[in-house]
TrEMBL record:
<dbReference type="GO" id="GO:0030276">
    <property type="term" value="F:clathrin binding"/>
</dbReference>
<dbReference type="GO" id="GO:0005737">
    <property type="term" value="C:cytoplasm"/>
</dbReference>
<dbReference type="GO" id="GO:0072318">
    <property type="term" value="P:clathrin coat disassembly"/>
</dbReference>
<dbReference type="GO" id="GO:0072583">
    <property type="term" value="P:clathrin-dependent endocytosis"/>
</dbReference>
<dbReference type="InterPro" id="IPR036869">
    <property type="entry name" value="J_dom_sf"/>
</dbReference>
<protein>
    <submittedName>
        <fullName>Uncharacterized protein</fullName>
    </submittedName>
</protein>
<dbReference type="GO" id="GO:0031982">
    <property type="term" value="C:vesicle"/>
</dbReference>
């Protein structure tokens, strides 16, 4: 599951920072 999230995050490089913040918050 984490791998899939990382893959999706990489796919959405546009909002990678936002994804990182979201992952840290959640």
């Amino acid at each position: 599951n984490l791998d899939a999230k990382i893959r999706k995050w990489a796919d959405g490089k546009e909002g990678n920072i936002r994804s990182l913040l979201s992952t840290l918050q959640y």
